[in-house]
Amino acid sequence: MALWRVSLMVMVWFLHLAALAVPGYLRLGRWHLPVYAIFAAAGLVAALLLGERTAKLVGIAEDKLWDAGMFAVVAAFVASRILLVVVDVKAFVAYPVLVLALPSLTYGGMAITAGLVWIYLRWKKLPVLDVMDAWAPCAALLAAVLSLGHFIEGTEAGMPTRLPWGVVTPGDTVLGRVHPVEVYEMVAAVVMCWVLLGVLGFRRRAGEAAGLALLVGGVLSFGLDMLRQPLDTFGGALLDSSQWVALGAIVVGVGILAYAESPSSLYAVELRGGGERSVKELV
Question: According to the 3-state scheme, what is the secondary structure of the chain?
């Protein structure tokens, strides 16, 4: 058996044992903490810390990128809470605390967050493409941690498989072994993070890392979604909502890469006194 197969099987079995050993909630006194929420918090902190390194690679002040990241986190939380209230006002009136505590960052919430972040970056006069480049490896790292959290929590099962590294979802008595899609996503995200860090070190155009992340990430997300059990049913719809989002990411990624290659987005390097180099956008 090939070495990569043995390595993948060992890693999946180890993670599966961890998923069986760790419950969906951890009790801390009177508080019951969802395991996925703990991974999400850890992933956000790791992504923000990595942003301190990527900020240097793109020439943005670390504190400004940190502030932008914190704004994005708060905007995502507020947007998701507002959508929860708007969708079901009666439930919010009856159970306000319970509704606001629900984890529900939908595609609509992410779109609103993206718009708010764009406005913030323009207000702070931060170059959007440079910020997106700096955030690309951070987003890949966050995706890896979230995928691990989903696998440990056991909430996103894959399609049935006969492969030797297939796992049994906790509580399932029907499907048997399924694809560990979250592990696939975690491995892909870690590799993407490493590759994007390398791209940042040698980038020649603003938007190269972000465009590559959206393009490759969209392709991977579309392909891996075929191995995941569908959660939503849209009758005769051609594709699931997640697959449409993946296609949208591919289109946006191609557009950013095309713009990055355009002469209008070239960056000029000026020499200051003492030989120090600075980068200034022409448009």
Answer: CCHHHHHHHHHHHHHHHHHHHCCCEEEECCEEEEHHHHHHHHHHHHHHHHHHHHHHHHCCCHHHHHHHHHHHHHHHHHHHHHHHHHHCHHHHHHCHHHHHCCCCCCHHHHHHHHHHHHHHHHHCCCCHHHHHHHHHHHHHHHHHHHHHHHHHHCCCCECECCCCCCEECCCCCCCCEECCHHHHHHHHHHHHHHHHHHHHHCCCCCCHHHHHHHHHHHHHHHHHHCCECCCCCCCCCCCCHHHHHHHHHHHHHHHHHHHHCCHHHCEEEEECHHHCEEEEECC
Could you report the per-residue pLDDT of 78-96, keeping only the tens digit for each?
Answer: 887 787 777 777 776 776 6
Of 149 and 51, more confident:
51
CA atoms within a 13 Å half-sphere pointing along the CA-CB vector of 35:
18
CB atoms inside a 10 Å sphere around CB 54: 23
Give pLDDT tens digits for 202-213. Answer: 888 888 999 999
